[in-house]
Amino acid sequence: MTAEVDPLLVVVLGPTASGKTALSIQLAERFAGEIVSCDSVAVYRGMEIGTAKPSREERARVPHHLIDIYELDEHSTAGDYARRARKAIAAITARGHLPIVTGGTGLYLRALLEGLFSGPQRSEELRERLKRSSERHRAGWLHDVLGRLDAAAAERIHANDVPKLIRAIEVSVAARRPMTEAWKDGREPLRGYRILRIGLEPERQALYARINERAKKMFDEGLGVDLVEETRRLIARYGEQPRALDSLGYRQARAVLCGTMTREEAIAAAQQGHRNYAKRQQTWFRREPAVHWLTGFGDDAAIAAEAEELVEQALDDTNHHDSGQLKAGV
To answer: Which comes out higher in pLDDT, residue 33 or 319?
Structure first.
């Protein structure tokens, strides 16, 4: 007896501003799909401008999942995301629709597809010691410490990302081995789906030009509520403690509100930060297996046509398999 073929799951990945949203919406409309967002900041309500979420109009065109599911003062982890995303994908498949995961948060995508290891519990004592030591030493000290404990993890975590550095050190110390080795244990990968990964890889200078323009528009007062005003409203409601307010764009908007940056300086810093982030995303996604890389932006008609052909071929494989079973009397 021929085994039943697994349903298709499409993943659209790539750096910020590469056109993932436009492509995923086009694919969803073409193939009766529903979109599962894979963005660590888009999960928060009220963060609209700095996250470049799909617009209300775009979300009305096709169903979107895992956007605006937390208040800003709630805490979301990669594990939380993976559990919710897997439930959403299963429900979409049960409805006979095509699940399309799209976004640029590499850790969340890894948690969804590969699973996460069951790491040690937080040690507040160790975390406080690391924070105090970091304040006494020069910038980059935590990154150097992690580099000695787990060089592979240090390559993936930015030197200024203090929360991730502390967690990686914490895990390495508690597990008595590098965190990247511990990652390999106890994972539960997503099963029961054929995964089609479609990657967007625009030419670098064109991507950077688009990133610069997008970052500039976020701070444009002429558009109505700009990023600085949105940040002011969020701080008035939630205070300055939520970690999401330290994400790109919002960090620079806070500096404008505090008077430590002019609007022009904040724009330049946000542009540079997003360019650096895009470079890290490209490095991360290059490690993803079996990606069909498309050289261009997702909102380009030729690129969209290539992506549609890939999805159509994957769906045809399913249909041919099913028809073969019927002919064989399965």
So the answer is: 33
Same structural domain for residues 209 and 305?
Answer: yes
Query: How many folded domains does the chain comprise?
Result: 2
Query: Containing domain of residue 141, as a range?
Result: 124-182
For 251, the 3-state DSSP assignment is helix
Is residue 309 helix, strand or coil? helix
Domain contains 1? no
Q: To which residue do tokens 């967007």 refer?
A: 200
Residues whose CB falls within 8 Å of the CB of residue 313, separated by 6 or more in sequence, listed in order: none
pLDDT in tens, 85-105: 999 999 999 999 999 999 999
Q: Alpha-carbon distance 126 to 279, whole Å?
A: 32
pLDDT digits (tens, 9 = 90+) for 120-159: 667 788 888 888 888 888 778 999 999 999 998 898 888 8
Pull the structure tokens for residue 8.
């298709």
Residue at 187 is within a domain: no
**H or E element: which one contains 170?**
helix 162-175
